Amino acid sequence: MPADLRVAAFTQGLDVPSARFRVRQYVSALAERGVALDEYPAAFGSYPPPGLLERLQWLPRAVIERRRTVAHTTADVALVQREMVSTLATAESVWRGPMLFDVDDAVWLHQRLGGADRIARRSNAVICGNAFIAEHFAPFARTVILPTAVDTGRYVPGPRAASPVLCWSGSSSGLPYLEALAPQLRQLMQAIPDATLRVISNAPPRLEGVPRVEYVRWSPETEITALQGAWCGLMPMPDTPWTRGKCSYKMLTYMACAVPAVVSPWGMNAEVLAQGDGAVGARDHEWADVLTSLLRDPARIAPMGQAGREIVQRSYAVDTLAGRLAQTLREVAAEGAA
Fold first, then answer.
1. Structural domain for 71, as ranges
2. Residue 311: what pLDDT?
Protein backbone atom coordinates (compact mmCIF):
# COMPACT_ATOMS: atom_id res chain seq x y z
CA MET A 1 0.00 0.00 0.00
CA PRO A 2 1.49 3.42 -0.92
CA ALA A 3 2.42 5.48 2.12
CA ASP A 4 0.40 8.61 2.78
CA LEU A 5 1.82 9.31 6.26
CA ARG A 6 5.49 9.72 7.16
CA VAL A 7 6.63 9.15 10.73
CA ALA A 8 10.03 9.96 12.22
CA ALA A 9 10.70 7.69 15.21
CA PHE A 10 13.43 8.92 17.55
CA THR A 11 14.60 5.97 19.64
CA GLN A 12 17.18 5.47 22.36
CA GLY A 13 19.47 3.19 20.36
CA LEU A 14 19.66 0.11 18.15
CA ASP A 15 20.08 -2.32 21.06
CA VAL A 16 17.47 -0.85 23.41
CA PRO A 17 14.59 -3.33 23.94
CA SER A 18 11.91 -0.61 23.88
CA ALA A 19 13.10 0.50 20.45
CA ARG A 20 12.90 -3.06 19.12
CA PHE A 21 9.52 -3.96 20.55
CA ARG A 22 7.59 -0.67 20.54
CA VAL A 23 8.93 0.81 17.28
CA ARG A 24 11.01 -1.42 15.01
CA GLN A 25 8.79 -4.47 14.97
CA TYR A 26 5.88 -2.31 13.73
CA VAL A 27 7.61 -1.10 10.54
CA SER A 28 6.21 -3.74 8.18
CA ALA A 29 2.74 -3.80 9.72
CA LEU A 30 2.49 -0.01 9.52
CA ALA A 31 3.69 0.00 5.91
CA GLU A 32 0.79 -2.32 5.05
CA ARG A 33 -1.48 0.39 6.46
CA GLY A 34 0.07 3.23 4.47
CA VAL A 35 2.35 4.53 7.22
CA ALA A 36 6.08 4.88 6.44
CA LEU A 37 8.11 4.82 9.66
CA ASP A 38 11.77 5.83 9.63
CA GLU A 39 13.79 5.23 12.78
CA TYR A 40 16.50 7.62 14.01
CA PRO A 41 18.31 5.84 16.86
CA ALA A 42 20.55 7.82 19.21
CA ALA A 43 24.08 7.68 17.78
CA PHE A 44 25.72 7.88 21.22
CA GLY A 45 22.97 6.10 23.11
CA SER A 46 20.43 7.67 25.43
CA TYR A 47 21.86 6.14 28.62
CA PRO A 48 25.06 7.39 30.27
CA PRO A 49 28.23 5.29 30.46
CA PRO A 50 29.34 4.14 33.94
CA GLY A 51 32.34 6.39 34.65
CA LEU A 52 32.01 10.04 35.72
CA LEU A 53 34.52 11.33 33.16
CA GLU A 54 32.85 9.32 30.41
CA ARG A 55 29.47 10.72 31.43
CA LEU A 56 30.71 14.30 31.31
CA GLN A 57 32.00 13.72 27.79
CA TRP A 58 28.92 11.76 26.70
CA LEU A 59 26.16 14.19 27.74
CA PRO A 60 26.96 17.16 25.46
CA ARG A 61 27.70 14.84 22.53
CA ALA A 62 24.39 13.01 23.04
CA VAL A 63 22.35 16.22 23.30
CA ILE A 64 24.02 17.87 20.29
CA GLU A 65 23.59 14.77 18.14
CA ARG A 66 19.90 14.48 19.01
CA ARG A 67 19.23 18.17 18.40
CA ARG A 68 20.98 18.09 15.01
CA THR A 69 19.14 14.93 13.96
CA VAL A 70 15.76 16.33 14.93
CA ALA A 71 16.45 19.68 13.24
CA HIS A 72 17.38 17.99 9.94
CA THR A 73 14.51 15.50 9.88
CA THR A 74 11.20 16.02 8.13
CA ALA A 75 8.03 13.97 8.58
CA ASP A 76 4.31 14.39 9.15
CA VAL A 77 4.58 13.38 12.81
CA ALA A 78 7.32 12.47 15.29
CA LEU A 79 7.22 9.43 17.55
CA VAL A 80 9.58 9.95 20.51
CA GLN A 81 10.28 6.62 22.20
CA ARG A 82 10.96 7.54 25.84
CA GLU A 83 13.29 10.48 26.47
CA MET A 84 15.86 11.26 23.77
CA VAL A 85 18.42 11.57 26.59
CA SER A 86 17.46 9.46 29.60
CA THR A 87 15.81 11.32 32.53
CA LEU A 88 15.98 14.71 30.76
CA ALA A 89 13.97 16.85 28.36
CA THR A 90 16.49 17.96 25.72
CA ALA A 91 16.03 17.85 21.95
CA GLU A 92 12.28 17.17 22.01
CA SER A 93 11.60 20.92 21.92
CA VAL A 94 13.43 21.23 18.58
CA TRP A 95 10.65 19.36 16.78
CA ARG A 96 8.04 21.85 15.49
CA GLY A 97 5.36 19.49 14.18
CA PRO A 98 2.87 17.16 15.86
CA MET A 99 4.50 14.70 18.26
CA LEU A 100 3.71 11.51 20.15
CA PHE A 101 5.59 10.53 23.31
CA ASP A 102 5.80 6.74 23.80
CA VAL A 103 6.39 5.49 27.37
CA ASP A 104 6.64 1.88 28.54
CA ASP A 105 8.06 2.33 32.06
CA ALA A 106 7.48 4.54 35.08
CA VAL A 107 10.17 6.91 33.76
CA TRP A 108 8.88 9.87 35.80
CA LEU A 109 10.22 8.21 38.97
CA HIS A 110 13.78 8.96 37.78
CA GLN A 111 13.26 12.18 35.82
CA ARG A 112 15.49 15.20 36.35
CA LEU A 113 14.06 18.71 36.21
CA GLY A 114 10.67 17.25 35.36
CA GLY A 115 12.03 15.88 32.07
CA ALA A 116 9.39 13.27 31.21
CA ASP A 117 6.52 15.48 32.33
CA ARG A 118 7.84 18.39 30.24
CA ILE A 119 8.02 16.15 27.16
CA ALA A 120 4.44 15.03 27.80
CA ARG A 121 3.23 18.63 27.97
CA ARG A 122 4.93 19.32 24.64
CA SER A 123 3.30 16.28 23.01
CA ASN A 124 -0.05 15.99 21.28
CA ALA A 125 -0.57 12.65 22.99
CA VAL A 126 1.29 10.12 25.14
CA ILE A 127 1.21 6.46 24.12
CA CYS A 128 1.31 4.50 27.39
CA GLY A 129 2.23 0.85 27.81
CA ASN A 130 -0.36 0.33 30.55
CA ALA A 131 -3.04 2.04 32.63
CA PHE A 132 -0.69 2.93 35.51
CA ILE A 133 1.52 4.96 33.15
CA ALA A 134 -1.53 6.58 31.58
CA GLU A 135 -2.79 7.64 35.01
CA HIS A 136 0.41 9.59 35.63
CA PHE A 137 0.53 11.37 32.26
CA ALA A 138 -3.20 12.13 31.94
CA PRO A 139 -2.86 15.61 33.54
CA PHE A 140 -0.28 16.63 30.91
CA ALA A 141 -1.67 15.31 27.60
CA ARG A 142 -4.18 13.01 25.97
CA THR A 143 -3.19 9.42 26.70
CA VAL A 144 -3.58 6.30 24.58
CA ILE A 145 -2.95 2.88 26.13
CA LEU A 146 -1.01 0.63 23.76
CA PRO A 147 0.56 -2.48 25.34
CA THR A 148 3.94 -3.71 24.15
CA ALA A 149 3.09 -6.03 21.26
CA VAL A 150 4.42 -9.55 20.74
CA ASP A 151 5.43 -10.87 17.33
CA THR A 152 3.33 -14.03 17.37
CA GLY A 153 4.89 -15.14 14.10
CA ARG A 154 8.26 -15.31 15.86
CA TYR A 155 7.25 -16.33 19.38
CA VAL A 156 5.55 -19.61 18.55
CA PRO A 157 5.00 -22.91 20.39
CA GLY A 158 7.59 -25.64 20.05
CA PRO A 159 8.46 -29.05 21.49
CA ARG A 160 8.33 -29.21 25.27
CA ALA A 161 11.08 -30.80 27.35
CA ALA A 162 10.46 -34.34 28.61
CA SER A 163 11.16 -33.38 32.23
CA PRO A 164 10.05 -30.21 34.05
CA VAL A 165 11.84 -27.01 33.01
CA LEU A 166 11.08 -23.66 34.61
CA CYS A 167 12.25 -20.66 32.63
CA TRP A 168 13.10 -17.05 33.40
CA SER A 169 14.03 -14.74 30.52
CA GLY A 170 15.13 -11.12 30.69
CA SER A 171 17.97 -8.63 31.00
CA SER A 172 20.36 -8.79 33.95
CA SER A 173 18.72 -5.71 35.51
CA GLY A 174 15.75 -7.92 36.39
CA LEU A 175 17.78 -10.77 37.89
CA PRO A 176 17.41 -9.49 41.50
CA TYR A 177 13.67 -10.24 41.25
CA LEU A 178 14.46 -13.85 40.37
CA GLU A 179 17.28 -14.11 42.92
CA ALA A 180 14.90 -13.02 45.68
CA LEU A 181 13.00 -16.26 45.01
CA ALA A 182 16.00 -18.46 45.93
CA PRO A 183 14.45 -19.87 49.15
CA GLN A 184 11.23 -20.75 47.30
CA LEU A 185 13.18 -22.26 44.40
CA ARG A 186 15.27 -24.41 46.76
CA GLN A 187 12.03 -25.73 48.27
CA LEU A 188 10.62 -26.45 44.82
CA MET A 189 13.75 -28.30 43.69
CA GLN A 190 13.51 -30.55 46.73
CA ALA A 191 9.87 -31.31 45.96
CA ILE A 192 10.47 -31.91 42.20
CA PRO A 193 13.89 -33.67 41.98
CA ASP A 194 13.93 -33.78 38.16
CA ALA A 195 13.10 -30.10 37.66
CA THR A 196 15.55 -27.66 36.06
CA LEU A 197 15.58 -23.86 36.17
CA ARG A 198 16.65 -22.30 32.86
CA VAL A 199 17.75 -18.65 32.96
CA ILE A 200 18.02 -16.78 29.64
CA SER A 201 19.86 -13.50 30.12
CA ASN A 202 22.94 -11.46 29.28
CA ALA A 203 24.51 -12.46 32.62
CA PRO A 204 24.22 -15.56 34.83
CA PRO A 205 22.10 -15.42 37.98
CA ARG A 206 23.32 -15.70 41.58
CA LEU A 207 21.03 -18.30 43.10
CA GLU A 208 22.82 -19.56 46.19
CA GLY A 209 21.93 -23.12 47.07
CA VAL A 210 19.53 -23.62 44.14
CA PRO A 211 20.49 -26.81 42.28
CA ARG A 212 20.04 -27.61 38.60
CA VAL A 213 20.28 -24.08 37.22
CA GLU A 214 20.95 -23.91 33.47
CA TYR A 215 22.23 -20.58 32.12
CA VAL A 216 21.55 -19.75 28.46
CA ARG A 217 23.19 -16.58 27.23
CA TRP A 218 20.54 -14.46 25.51
CA SER A 219 20.63 -13.96 21.77
CA PRO A 220 17.86 -13.60 19.19
CA GLU A 221 18.79 -17.08 17.95
CA THR A 222 18.74 -18.89 21.32
CA GLU A 223 15.93 -17.11 23.16
CA ILE A 224 12.86 -18.65 21.55
CA THR A 225 14.14 -22.23 21.37
CA ALA A 226 15.07 -22.05 25.06
CA LEU A 227 11.62 -20.69 25.91
CA GLN A 228 9.70 -23.24 23.88
CA GLY A 229 10.97 -26.20 25.86
CA ALA A 230 9.78 -24.86 29.21
CA TRP A 231 6.87 -26.17 31.25
CA CYS A 232 6.29 -22.72 32.76
CA GLY A 233 7.79 -19.24 32.66
CA LEU A 234 8.47 -17.09 35.72
CA MET A 235 7.86 -13.38 36.22
CA PRO A 236 8.41 -12.51 39.89
CA MET A 237 8.60 -8.88 40.98
CA PRO A 238 7.86 -6.81 44.10
CA ASP A 239 4.85 -4.54 44.21
CA THR A 240 6.40 -1.07 43.81
CA PRO A 241 5.65 2.04 41.74
CA TRP A 242 8.47 1.07 39.36
CA THR A 243 7.20 -2.49 38.77
CA ARG A 244 3.63 -1.24 38.33
CA GLY A 245 4.97 0.58 35.27
CA LYS A 246 6.09 -2.72 33.74
CA CYS A 247 4.14 -3.82 30.68
CA SER A 248 4.13 -7.61 31.30
CA TYR A 249 6.18 -8.27 28.16
CA LYS A 250 8.05 -11.17 29.75
CA MET A 251 4.74 -12.77 30.70
CA LEU A 252 3.30 -12.25 27.22
CA THR A 253 6.29 -13.80 25.42
CA TYR A 254 5.97 -16.94 27.54
CA MET A 255 2.26 -17.14 26.72
CA ALA A 256 2.87 -16.55 23.01
CA CYS A 257 5.10 -19.64 23.04
CA ALA A 258 2.26 -21.59 24.73
CA VAL A 259 4.26 -21.71 27.97
CA PRO A 260 2.09 -21.14 31.06
CA ALA A 261 3.23 -18.08 33.01
CA VAL A 262 3.54 -17.93 36.80
CA VAL A 263 3.68 -14.29 37.79
CA SER A 264 3.43 -11.81 40.62
CA PRO A 265 -0.24 -10.76 40.47
CA TRP A 266 0.02 -6.97 40.48
CA GLY A 267 0.37 -4.14 38.02
CA MET A 268 -0.45 -5.03 34.43
CA ASN A 269 0.12 -8.71 35.27
CA ALA A 270 -3.22 -8.67 37.10
CA GLU A 271 -4.98 -7.39 33.97
CA VAL A 272 -3.53 -10.21 31.85
CA LEU A 273 -4.34 -12.81 34.52
CA ALA A 274 -7.98 -11.72 34.44
CA GLN A 275 -8.27 -12.49 30.71
CA GLY A 276 -8.14 -16.27 30.91
CA ASP A 277 -6.34 -19.40 32.06
CA GLY A 278 -2.96 -18.93 30.37
CA ALA A 279 -1.22 -17.87 33.57
CA VAL A 280 -1.45 -18.12 37.33
CA GLY A 281 -0.55 -15.64 40.07
CA ALA A 282 1.84 -16.34 42.95
CA ARG A 283 2.35 -13.97 45.87
CA ASP A 284 5.60 -13.69 47.80
CA HIS A 285 5.41 -16.87 49.89
CA GLU A 286 3.26 -18.88 47.48
CA TRP A 287 5.78 -19.53 44.72
CA ALA A 288 7.01 -22.96 45.82
CA ASP A 289 3.47 -24.27 46.38
CA VAL A 290 2.08 -22.83 43.13
CA LEU A 291 4.96 -24.15 41.04
CA THR A 292 4.96 -27.55 42.72
CA SER A 293 1.22 -27.93 42.12
CA LEU A 294 1.61 -27.05 38.44
CA LEU A 295 4.61 -29.27 37.74
CA ARG A 296 3.00 -32.24 39.50
CA ASP A 297 0.00 -31.97 37.17
CA PRO A 298 1.54 -31.98 33.68
CA ALA A 299 -1.87 -32.49 32.06
CA ARG A 300 -2.55 -28.80 32.85
CA ILE A 301 0.42 -27.53 30.87
CA ALA A 302 -0.84 -27.89 27.28
CA PRO A 303 -4.36 -26.43 27.87
CA MET A 304 -2.91 -23.51 29.83
CA GLY A 305 -0.34 -22.91 27.12
CA GLN A 306 -2.96 -22.90 24.37
CA ALA A 307 -5.20 -20.53 26.37
CA GLY A 308 -2.27 -18.18 26.92
CA ARG A 309 -1.35 -18.06 23.24
CA GLU A 310 -4.96 -17.29 22.33
CA ILE A 311 -4.97 -14.36 24.77
CA VAL A 312 -1.82 -12.92 23.19
CA GLN A 313 -3.08 -13.39 19.65
CA ARG A 314 -6.38 -11.73 20.54
CA SER A 315 -5.13 -8.72 22.51
CA TYR A 316 -1.35 -8.27 22.27
CA ALA A 317 -0.12 -9.37 18.83
CA VAL A 318 1.73 -6.96 16.53
CA ASP A 319 -0.90 -7.30 13.79
CA THR A 320 -3.65 -6.60 16.33
CA LEU A 321 -2.06 -3.48 17.81
CA ALA A 322 -0.55 -2.03 14.59
CA GLY A 323 -3.96 -0.79 13.50
CA ARG A 324 -4.44 1.12 16.75
CA LEU A 325 -0.97 2.65 16.47
CA ALA A 326 -1.59 3.69 12.85
CA GLN A 327 -4.89 5.29 13.82
CA THR A 328 -3.27 7.25 16.66
CA LEU A 329 -0.47 8.47 14.38
CA ARG A 330 -3.02 9.65 11.82
CA GLU A 331 -5.09 11.44 14.46
CA VAL A 332 -2.06 13.33 15.78
CA ALA A 333 -0.88 14.19 12.27
CA ALA A 334 -4.37 15.56 11.50
CA GLU A 335 -4.26 17.71 14.63
CA GLY A 336 -1.02 19.25 13.42
CA ALA A 337 -2.44 19.93 9.96
CA ALA A 338 -5.60 21.56 11.30
1. 5-149+318-337
2. 97
